[in-house]
Amino acid sequence: MMASTIFRSIQNHPLLLYQTALFRRKNGVFYCTMKSTEAQTATQEKQKPPLPKIMKQTKTSDKFSKDYEAVIGIETHVQLNTLTKAFCGCPYNYGSPPNTSVCPICMGLPGALPVLNSKVIELAVKVGLALNSKLSLNSKFDRKQYFYPDLPKGYQISQFDVPIASGGYIDLDLPVEFGGGHRRFGITRVHMEEDAGKLLHSENGSYSQVDLNRAGVPLLEIVSEPDMRTGIEAAEYAAELQRLVRYLGVSNGNMQEGSLRCDVNVSVRPIGQAQFGTKVEIKNLNSFSSVSRAIDFEISRQVLLHSQGQGDQITQETRLWEEGAQKTVTMRKKEGLADYRYFPEPDLPGVILTKEYVNSILDSLPELPEVKRRRYEKMGLSMQDVLFLANDVNVAEFFDATIAKGADVKLAANWIMGDIAAYMKNEKLTINEIKLIPQELAELIASIKGGTISGKIGKEILFELLAKGGTVKGLIKEKDLVQIVDPVEIEKIVDKVLSENPKQLEQYRGGKTKLQGYFAGQVMKLSKGKANPGLLNKILLEKLNAQS
Amino acid sequence: MGSRALLMLKGVSSIAPKNQIFNFNCKSSRSSNSSFSFSQVVINHNKNNKVRRCSTTTTQSSLEPPDVSRLAETARISLTPSEVEEFAPKIQQVIDWFGQLQDVDLHSIEPSIRADTEDSNLRDDVPETFENRESMIAAVPSYEEPYIKVPKVLNKE
Fold it and tell me: Could you tell me if B44 and A140 are in contact, meaning their C-beta atoms sit under 8 angstroms apart?
């Protein structure tokens, strides 16, 4: 029964399937051409597990999805990379032995009082400004009360009616393989709060285990406007937030570690209807591709129910994304709004910002992803290049440093996206871990452009630099790699090759002109790759055709 | 309404015990930053804006008698029927007192977010390890190295 539901609901969405298929095909092409594009976009971050078998398209299902529109909003929790927790001095390090980084404050012992970490405010202001939000110069903390074993105090310190930032937007570019396009998604609010502990369920299931290391770690909750319409848009929104917090240096944004967590709200409505449909919340999304696929699954599920006149079967509930089965399942039904009995946190004073403080942070903001992309675009780079280079802040900095040393923009982009990216992927290294430095990449590009070395030798030098470091000049000298540009010297080599291959020469002159490539290869080999290719070909051709 | 009354009650009671022992450091790193004016305050008019609204516009007549059983349930407190009967009038007295407060005409007054916002008390982001972890862990009712053991939980609520 369940299986057939999935089958039908996916059938129902031929458009999205087509996109996926298209994307994969293109991806293959990119790999073939060695033109990198690896890790370029969020959705490419991980190798996709094979989708369940599907692929039948019907015209009727086509019609259904065209009649409906999905409305998607996202709540994102970003763990701030402060050294200490939000309200106590306990250090937080991911992966520490359980319950070692705890104190009376984060364990919620009676009488313990919270004191806010000033860094939390600083990072919240950075994010608020970067999201073009309006900051509340005067905000406060509130208690959100619920009972759960990972919450020692019986309440979470959060912000309720006066968040530190509200309004705003984020700009992003959709990946070229999804048709591209620029999007602006609204931000409803950004507020500060503390994380709960980690709850583990024991193997035999008779009890649960709590680790309070994470209890009290500062989070920002970023709430989007319901502006997204597809799984791809939602995944790209999340990816842009990750980029933003990494550019800002406020979080590592790592989804696997739970430093960036997305809860997605999805509803579907007939096109033209102003009122939203019943929304369903999806949890357990720990990669961008699962965000995208979970939403597309959920849209199909809801559209199917609508189209069968069973729209009333969609209930407000929380569903879990099951990665293995590639579907969402009911986690719990919501019975009305949870009553959190918020009230102002009496143990903490208000959060007061001055305009001077906000301005000093504004002045210290780095170039943000959107500005960087627009700048790269103006430099004449293709959108494919722009998205690749700006995706990772460290790659962008490497690229910026390379062109700051005078390197040609397009050539620098090609080297980074091509051989350097491939090397990083093979060796599982980040750009900060390779031995090549931007200055030497610029030198390498200049040496090839200026004719000191050939492109082929350039590649050899590149791999040497990537693995061992050193300088381009040093390697050229050490290995005697300077390109041969003296026509007389090249002529000598050509003569030698021709005299050593009389048979092939005869064949060539007998009309088998394809053999030119063979001769060129032999000359290159003999010159140890140092012969200038242009000169080589010119001289070779003259000699080959001389007596025919 | 009942839960609102509880909210008020909790708010009042939790101010009481101020034990400074565990308050690591009260170094105020940015106390000079308190030069704000109320005109700059951004107030969100959320749909969930219950707390704020009740402090300005509600009148006594809208304060319903407490549903003590429900209050006890939200606070995870078990009460006998006789206790419910005993507490109801006491809680009603407190609610009536809030009713009096809410009768005060505040329409010409800007809402204050916090009563004591002049003094911001912040901490630098410097790690400090709590020295007496062992005795804290020893006091956990059910502990099985390295985790705190709790009854099996599946869903919230």
Answer: no
The residue range of the domain holding A528 is: 487-546
CATH code for the domain in which residue A517 is found: 1.10.10.410
* Out of B26, B48, B127, closest to residue A115 by CB: B26
Are A115 and B43 a contacting pair at CB < 8 A? no
Q: What is the predicted pLDDT for the residue at A450? A: 85
Q: How confident is the model at residue A29, as a pLDDT? A: 34
Reported as a single tens digit per residue, the pLDDT across B129-146 is: 999 999 999 999 999 999
Assigned domain for A389 exists? yes
Give the chain B residue nearest A339 (alpha carbons). Answer: B3
Q: What is the ipTM of this complex?
A: 0.76
Q: Within chain A, which residues score under 70 in pLDDT?
A: 1-64, 334-338, 547-548
Does one domain contain both A109 and A200?
Answer: yes
**How far apart, in Å, are the Cα atoms of B58 and each of B52, B98, B109?**
10, 10, 15
Q: To the nearest whole percent, how much of chain B has pLDDT over 70?
A: 54
CA angle A148, A150, A155 (to 5 degrees): 60
**Are A269 and A324 part of one and the same domain?**
yes
Residues A180 and A272 in one domain: yes
CB contact under 8 A, A115 and B23: yes
Does residue A82 fall inside a structural domain?
Answer: yes
Residue A117 and residue A253 share a domain: yes
The structure's pTM equals 0.77
- Do the domain assignments include residue A276? yes
Per-residue model confidence (pLDDT) at position A62: 54
- The CA distance from B155 to B157, in Å, is 6
Same domain, A378 and A234: no
Residue A130 lies inside a defined structural domain of this protein: yes
* CB-based burial, A119-133: b 16+ in 10 Å, e otherwise: bbbbbbbbbbbbbbb
Portion 135-174 of A in contact with B at CB < 8 A: 135-140, 142, 145-149, 160-163, 166
What confidence tens digit (pLDDT) does each residue in B69-120 have? 888 988 889 999 999 999 999 999 999 998 899 889 988 988 777 776 566 6
Report the chain A residue with the minimal C-alpha distance to residue B130: A103
Count of domains forming chain A: 3
Domain end: A478, A511, A526, which one? Answer: A478
- The predicted pLDDT at position B13 comes to 37
Nearest 10 degrees: Cα torsion A19, A24, A28, A30: 50
My answer on whether A379 and A495 are in the same domain is no
CB contact under 8 A, B150 and A208: yes
**Which residues lie closer than 8 Å to A266 by C-beta, 6 or more apart?**
A70, A71, A72, A279, A280, A282, A295, A298, A299, A302
pLDDT at A410: 96
Separation between Cα atoms, residue A15 and residue A19, nearest integer Å: 6
Q: Are residues A125 and A258 in the same domain?
A: yes
Domain end residue (candidates: A308, A331, A355): A355
User: Which residues in chain B have their CB less than 8 angstroms from residue A136's CB?
Assistant: 41-42
Note whether A404 contacts B: Cβ–Cβ < 8 A: no
Mean pLDDT of chain B: 67
Given this model, what pLDDT does residue A51 score? 44
Same domain, A473 and A492: no
Task: Say what the pLDDT of residue B55 is.
Answer: 40
CA distance A356 to chain B (A): 9
